[in-house]
Design goal:
CATH class of the largest domain: Mainly Alpha
Radius of gyration: 21 Å
Order of helices and strands: HHHHHHHHHHHHHHH
Distance between the termini: 66 Å
Structural class: mainly alpha
Shape: flat
Strand content: under 5%
Largest sheet: none
Oligomer: single chain
Number of helices: 15
Number of domains: 2
CATH topology of the largest domain: Tetracycline Repressor, domain 2
Length: 303
């Protein structure tokens, strides 16, 4: 038995709406946005004094999630011409033509503004300010700098390190030493992580016109040196929370093991450079962060 024309039309419209929603969701880079939320929640929990205020946590995560997703959309709007040249990004919604640039611009602006408003009003103005600084660094500094200088990696590490600070100040209402210790860990972690990605896709980034360090470093020595130096600094920074009293001895041991292991992967990638070594380093960075933050949170929970 065949479907009636009206039923067919209704089904077609429903399918179209589902496709449209999936495209808009794709534009927000859900996996990256989820990572922002995890680090924000970690900062909030670590700064909370007494029982966690779940309403305040929810407001912080909603505000951070919306502003973060909006910034990612606006980044893709600003880089749509470069994304169209690269194999790994040509299929994104804007360069592929599935979303019009002006629609993405409006969508990203609305999400970002809504997120900043929620943070400022439902959490506290300080959390809104930190996130506003994150947005400015990401869109006004890091995004254009990728076109003309490898120093963009240093600048880009700042907005990547600020979400846990947003969580911290939302919970505590102030900038404590603990907030800066987590900022330092996140800042230093991003250098080996982002440089490993750039190293793996250096030809594609060169084709896109990005001046990332591996693109302008033909023999790779400067890239390898930066990875090694920042991994060594990360090993030290990971121990600071125990030194300043934010975490205890159990966390210290976990951080020491994780930092040493990551440094070993970095040394291997620097001394015996190969695509496989860089992939292993990238995997190590992805393992390092959630375990470290989880150990810090667990240490607080049991102490």
């Amino acid at each position: 038995m065949s479907m009636a024309p009206n039923s067919v039309a209704t089904a077609a419209r429903s399918e179209t709406r589902r496709v449209e929603l999936s495209v808009w969701l794709e534009l927000t880079k859900p996996r990256l946005a989820a990572m922002v939320l995890v680090t924000t929640a970690a900062g909030f929990y670590l700064a909370a004094r007494g029982p966690v205020d779940f309403w305040l946590l929810a407001a912080t995560l909603v505000g951070t999630g919306l502003s973060g997703a909006g910034s990612l959309v606006l980044n893709q709007y600003l880089e749509r011409d470069l994304d169209a040249r690269m194999e790994r990004t040509a299929a994104r919604p804007i360069p592929s033509g599935r979303v019009e640039p002006q629609d993405a611009l409006l969508f990203g602006a609305i999400l970002t503004a809504a997120g900043l408003g929620i943070l400022s009003l439902a959490a506290n103005p300080l959390a809104g300010l930190v996130t506003a600084v994150t947005v400015v660094f990401y869109l006004a500094l890091y995004t254009p700098m990728k076109r003309w200088t490898p120093l963009c990696a240093i600048v880009g590490a700042v907005p990547g390190a600020l979400p846990p600070v947003t969580g911290w100040v939302a919970a505590s209402g102030s900038f404590d030493p603990g907030a800066w210790s987590i900022f330092g860990i996140m800042f230093l972690w991003q250098l080996p992580h982002s440089l490993a990605i750039a190293k793996l896709y250096e030809e594609d980034y060169a084709r896109g016109g990005f001046k990332l360090l591996p693109v302008v470093d033909p023999d790779g020595r400067s890239t390898e040196r930066q990875i090694l130096v920042h991994s060594a600094a990360l090993l030290v920074a990971g121990l600071v929370p125990t030194v300043i009293g934010v975490a205890g001895a159990a966390y210290f041991c976990v951080a020491l093991v994780l930092g040493t292991a990551l440094l070993a992967f970095s040394a291997n990638a620097a001394l015996r450079p190969s695509k496989d070594a860089v992939r292993r380093l990238l995997f190590a960075t992805l393992v390092y962060l959630p375990i470290l933050l989880g150990a810090m949170a667990l240490d607080k929970a049991v102490s």
